[in-house]
Design goal:
This protein is an alpha/beta fold. The chain folds into 2 domains: 118 residues, Aspartate Aminotransferase, domain 1 (Alpha-Beta Complex); 226 residues, Aspartate Aminotransferase, domain 2 (3-Layer(aba) Sandwich), CATH 3.40.640.10. The protein has a 7-stranded mixed beta sheet with strand order 2-8-7-6-5-3-4, sandwiched between helices. It has a 4-stranded antiparallel beta sheet with strand order 9-10-13-12. A two-stranded parallel sheet has the order 1-11. It is globular, with a radius of gyration of 20 Å. The protein is built from 13 helices and 13 strands. The longest helix is centred in the last third of the chain and has 21 residues. The N and C termini lie far apart (52 Å). The structure holds 4'-deoxy-4'-aminopyridoxal-5'-phosphate (PMP). 4'-deoxy-4'-aminopyridoxal-5'-phosphate binds next to helix 4. The site of 4'-deoxy-4'-aminopyridoxal-5'-phosphate has 13 residues, from helix 4.
Amino acid sequence: MQPRDLSDHVAYEAGRGIEEVARELECDPSELVKLASNENPHGPSPAATVALREAASSVSSYPKAAHADLTAAVADRWGVDDAQVWLANGGDGAIDYLHRAMLEPDDTVLVPTPGFAYYGMSARFHHGDVAEYALERAADFEQTAETVLESYDGERIVWVTSPHNPTGSTMPLAEIERLAAETADETLVVVDEAYGEFADRESAVALIEGRDGFDARDDVAVLRTFSKAYGLAGVRLGYAVVPDAWADAYTRVNTPFAASELACRAGLAAVDDDEHVERTVETALESRASMREEIDAHVWDSEGNFVLVAVGDASAVAEEMQERGVIVRDCSSFGLPGCVRITCGTDEETERAVETLNAVLDDLE
Ligand code: PMP
């Protein structure tokens, strides 16, 4: 007995965990700095930590009330109806739900390259095909409607990542509006704002709701996560904001109790902790600025909590940095074998990353 033919499906390559690297290097994890997965250097909101402890005693029940409460809190935050918020097991889960809701067999999704691998993986799970648009063609990975439209051929979903992982570039709302307007009525533009809190940009929810001078659209959806600015990557919590015309689709496509009691309780506490998010964003901005200024290699302007650095041989540089205790992301798996991506850290972490990278670049020259 075998699973179905999965030879077309590639496995998701997550960044290596700090424990795993510490075992390999035979050192204590506290000696290492991990800036490879765009996690929050300040951890979760303290309010979320308290909520998680308190929620521990209620995990014998299904999370019906917590799910509804968090949905309402998120809807309130965006000024949308509860039915427009699709909670999920991380942003990844929300990607799956959008594909489940949209894709007929053999429909195609259009994804950016370089880009986040899970869009394509998920589309394939849902019997879809994948086409790509190339961001490298634009200087500095600039994102305009044109960048996408050059490759667009009537796909069912167009994925836009803004800020984009791993480049940090964004697509202005007016360009997203133009993209949505110039693609077919049956094409949904999904704007993945996993790193939205770190950008100096309005959310594309404005396009769904018709705010800030935009007309309301029913062909745009937005993806958000609690994994980055909220520091809750480990609880797995994210969501999509969808057009209001889709009111009942979620109940038909979601996995029952799409987010756990622990995730919902942590999310409820975190969503109101603006102070923690502000502190996190401030740290990211400082770290981004220092890395741009102090790294002896080209660092792209980024609106995420990470920067992309041109290092030559990314695998060699990432490996050597790891040997010296700093874990960064080799972007070969994103299709950028000449670049590493470094997550924004605290002052000390940033300093160590900069020093280590500069020394490695010097030594490998
Ligand atoms: N979108 C982008 C662009 C990402 O980089 C990530 C995580 N690396 C996600 C979505 C999904 O994150 P999560 O499932 O942790 O919410």
